[in-house]
Amino acid sequence: MKQRASLLGGVAAIVATFVVFVIPFLFIILMAFKDRQQSALRDFSWPTGFHLWDNVFEVVKTRNWMMITAFINSSIITVASVSLLVVFAAMVGFILARRKTRWNPLIEFLILAGLMVPPAVVPTIWVLQGLKLFGTLHGMILIEVAYNLPFSIILYRAFIATIPKDMDEAAIIDGARPLDVFFRIILPMLWPVTVTNIVVQSVGIFNDFTNPLYYLPGNANATVQLTLFNFQSQFSTAYNLLFTNILLITIPPLIVFLFFNRQIVAGMTAGAVKG
Amino acid sequence: MAGLELKALRKSYGDLEVIKGVDLHIEHGEFVVFVGPSGCGKSTLLRMIAGLEEISAGELVIGDRVVNEVEPRDRGIAMVFQSYALYPHMTVYDNVGFGLMLAKTPREVRDKKIREAARILQMEHLLNRKPSQLSGGQRQRVAIGRAIVRQPEVFLFDEPLSNLDAALRVDMRMELARLHQDLGATMIYVTHDQVEAMTLADKIVVLDGGVVQQVGSPIELYQRPANLFVAGFIGSPKMNLLPAIVDAVEGDVVRVSSKDLAATAIRASGEGLKPGDSVTLGVRPHALTPTESGSVVGQVALVERLGNETNVSITLPSGTSFMAVLDGDRALRPSGSIVLGFNPADALLFDGAGLAR
Ligand SMILES: Nc1ncnc2c1ncn2[C@@H]1O[C@H](COP(=O)(O)OP(=O)(O)O)[C@@H](O)[C@H]1O
Ligand SMILES: [Mg+2]
User: Fold this and answer.
1) Helix A137-160 and helix A191-206: axis angle, to 10°?
2) Which of B77, B83, B146 sits opposite A166 (nearest CB)?
3) How far is A106 from chain B (nearest CA, A)?
4) How far, in Å, CA of A204 to CA of A144, rounded?
5) What is the pLDDT of residue A65?
6) A169/B77 CB distance under 8 A
7) Which residues surround ligand 2, an ion (CB under 5 A)?
8) What residues make up the domain containing A227?
9) Rounded CA separation B285/B279 (Å)
10) pTM of the model
11) What is the mean pLDDT of chain A?
12) What are the counts of helices (DSSP H) followed by strands (DSSP E) for chain B?
């Protein structure tokens, strides 16, 4: 009886996963193979011809090769923000876990607030303009770091708390200065969490739509998600190109996932049990 | 050459004073053991010497320098932690060489020193492993290797053997003693295990409640404990401590008795004692022998026959339990009556304040 129930549960879970995750993805792929007329039907029909390469070429060269610029911009933003996030979040988590002061509760409250309070766009733009960072890639990078820092810190801090303090002290006795302790001992030991951070944050930042929309105007600054606008308009939408575009910009996050897949699980559960 | 001088060292965490003024002189090359019950401040004192805890008051001298404000790396010390604290992402080779690498020692010199340390500790075959691939004893060796390779003047050990099983602990204890002979460095060793203290130490420092109770060689502490705490702490099984009343004081002889104890004359300073004072008589379990007319009579509660000796736990008339270790094998019946005697010269007398007389 119990076995039957768990079997049913398993089947239900697989079906649900298939419907929610796989079918939309198959739909995207099918659409990317179709020509404009067939794709306008927006159904699950089999492509009548092989139009993938035409679609890809069309998408890439639209608006003066905007896709290429967008890929470069998004990559720069993602790599730079994630690098900064990893280093800063690990440092903050390290200090929060190690140095107990009466400011800790306040700092922890601010971190939680950063996680929960929605960012105010207009004042942020004023500040960026005042700092002459509005509409620049490095301004965008700072925004992504600021918005995503609280989540990364929380991931790190829980893990650092499980690293015995003896570790730091052994390094100090061995002659390590504070930065040595952090970069040579603590940061390498945080690798499982760092992988989780890299995957979660890079996918989030690479796919970010709203923040570049607000803070990074201008064609030269396009990011991948904004290229989706190229094929939608009020009057006509080239669905085959739109979905080809979606397919192209899904590939990098997919690669990151496949690459780090196994280590993510380790990072998510790390710290749950003492290793 | 580095001896140490601790002058009125104090440590407080906020209002809580943990080390309450420790004065201690340690010669170069001495093996000093800090021993005391858990929570008495041994680790704190060791960590103050290492520079991991700030010194609240007092002065710490290593060699001929006051090092209160000196960074741990410049104190000429190395420390072995109870948890070993090996760096899990580095091989044994890199673990041992980490300090040298930070000190920017040239690669060839570093390699030579690491291999030399590995040879001393017989762990050359482990150099390419990660800590997770080592047994407890091997991890311990690596931790010691990491200390040796820095060629410190002073080695600090914080309960290094307490995570090992009993047999390995005995082996490593001997190895540490050998290491001390070979290296000739000063070693300070913290333990709560008085057997480790007795076997390893040139000098034992007994701590309780952040105060030094007594400093001396193991035999001194065993034979002439300064107070009730040391008497109870050093020696295994524990010394029997019997409350008694002074009957008479005759110069250097004090006569005492109690419900559990027939009148006994002890050679001890009677100065300041008068008949009727409460005192405590200390007798080691090994000093007791069964006799026809001894001064202690009781009922056998528990017998442990070890072959070469017999441990007997006895309940005295007042309900106090009393321990005797008798030579040879003795088939005693539990709940039978037993009479024990001791040579008064083997007994110790403590006054009402707990100080030895
Ligand atoms: N960081 C700290 N803050 C407050 N109290 C502490 C701290 N570290 C140690 N103590 C207290 O100091 C006392 C001595 O600790 P410790 O030196 O570790 O004892 P042990 O002799 O077992 O090694 C204990 O009562 C402990 O609670
Ligand atoms: Mg301790």
Assistant:
1) 150
2) B83
3) 21
4) 10
5) 86
6) no
7) B 43
8) 60-274
9) 19
10) 0.85
11) 88
12) 8, 20
